[in-house]
Protein: 2-C-methyl-D-erythritol 4-phosphate cytidylyltransferase
Organism: Streptomyces subrutilus
Amino acid sequence: HRTAAVIPAAGRGVRLGPGAPKALRALGGTPMLVHAVRAMARSRAVSLVVVVAPPEGAAEVRLLLDEHTLPDRTEVLVVPGGETRQESVRAGLDALPADVTSVLVHDAARPLVPVDTVDSVVEALRAGAPAVVPGLPLADTVKEVGPGAPGRPEPVVATPERARLRAVQTPQGFDLPTLLRAHAEIALAGEGATDDAGMVERLGVTVVVVPGHDEAFKVTRPLDLVLAEAVLARRRA
Ligand code: C5P
């Protein structure tokens, strides 16, 4: 029984503004991707990390990872990604050796996830859950909006009860055969998903939520970079 982590890092990160692919941007002087790989490697359960790189940047990513220190027990593979996050994750899963039974899928864009969050996901998998996501209650009330007239304010159609909602993060943990089946069946149906657990849910498999962490936030917009730098500075103080 071996647990591997797959890190999709092939996105361009357009919402962050112009510049290098998001995963290669520096945080505290170190590329975001290196932080993300270290965050997975810090867990004793993880002995293999598969990084899914931009197709044209795989060689550069390999060099970059070789330049940075990682725990000795961690093996790191780099494979080229695809057009969508889903295709990139699939490329990472296809690279896993046969002895891997569980997988954590972790966004490169969540570089600061604490090891305790990673370990709680692994623990729930070991306790028998086929799919596990870290999640947090929401501070904001969420509205569902309907299609409105072009150029007019959007009409609200529903307000889900906030106490029952969770904002989900990564790493998302899976029994590997279950995630492979989800990828095969959902891709066959031509459907997309914004996270891996969503695909597993569509198989009718129960996904469980363990507590997430504020520091597992996704670096998406410019303000998130400011927050990430502040979190790193506080850790180093
Ligand atoms: O775009 P979003 O923030 O949802 O991306 C989440 C993660 O998926 C990022 O780490 C990004 O690099 C990755 N991704 C990918 N391949 C794509 C698109 C996104 O690996 N084609």
The chain has a mean pLDDT of 94. The CA atoms of residues 133 and 172 lie 5 Å apart. The two ends are 38 Å apart (CA to CA). The chain has one domain: 2-232.
